[in-house]
Write a structure and sequence with these properties.
Bound molecules: iron/sulfur cluster
Largest sheet: 2 strands, antiparallel
Length: 231
């Protein structure tokens, strides 16, 4: 076990431990080295992480564990081993998935599908609605650019991203208690929104979540604008 040595090294005043990193280039000679180190993002604040592991318990993404030569499974949020230094978790993430990049609302497609796969439908819907309040409407009318770039296509077929969030919305609407997001504490500011079309309702939805007192004005007798009367 190298952990006792690592602890000793970590405490040494002349040594800086740079973890989650790769040495890209080393030039020079003894006493005058120049090192180029690429430090990978950890996505977790080392100072705040208490290493309790609760994040790994709820993480829906399973990956092959490179530390064990891929023979076991680890979560996307992980700590390499119990005595790892620093004693904090990190998230294994390879940039932004093409589906998310191409979605005009930047929906966390990978995230909500991973939650569906675990049967966590309500959590999946809540995650979707963090970026987009109309999973049911766009589950029907979006031209789904996300599916055009889905890399799963290179293995067998594109994932039916649009129908998956349509399913989430329909399931929720048929449930006894449809999902309602939690609102932050009420703020004193009042906001008037002119027009109850998709843009107006989206603004109203997210401002209300932030605690603003929102009133939406609409000239038609129905809400939804183009969603109701145009398509
Ligand atoms: S189908 Fe859904 S996830 Fe895909 S681009 Fe449209 S809104 Fe975004
Ligand atoms: S497989 Fe398709 S849906 Fe899943 S993350 Fe990749 S691009 Fe997105």
């Amino acid at each position: 076990m190298i952990s006792p040595k690592l602890v000793e090294v970590g405490r040494h005043l002349n040594i800086e431990l740079i973890t989650n990193s790769e040495l890209q280039q080393l030039t020079g000679e003894p006493g005058h080295f120049t090192a180029h180190v690429r430090e990978n993002p950890r996505y977790i604040d080392v100072v705040k992480c208490t290493s309790c592991g609760e994040c790994a318990q709820v993480c829906p993404v399973d990956l092959k564990d490179g530390y064990n030569e891929g023979l076991s499974i680890k979560k996307a949020v992980f700590k390499q081993y119990a005595q790892a230094i620093p004693g904090a978790f990190a998230i294994n993430k390879r940039g932004t998935a093409p589906c998310r990049s191409s979605c005009p609302a930047h929906v966390s497609v990978q995230g909500f599908i991973a939650l569906i796969q675990q049967g966590k439908y309500r959590e999946a819907l809540a995650l979707f609605k963090q970026d987009h309040p109309f999973p049911g409407v766009c589950g029907r009318v979006c031209h789904h650019p996300c599916e055009g770039v889905c890399t799963r296509n290179q293995v067998d077929d594109t994932l039916s991203i649009q129908y998956l969030h349509r399913f989430l919305a329909d399931r929720d609407l048929e449930s006894e208690q449809p999902y309602l997001p939690e609102k932050k504490a009420e703020r004193p500011e009042k906001v008037a929104i002119i027009g109850a079309g998709p843009a107006g309702l989206t603004c109203a939805y997210y401002l209300a979540i932030e605690g603003y007192q929102v009133t939406v004005y609409e000239k038609l007798p129905v809400l939804g604008g183009m969603l109701t009367v145009g398509i």
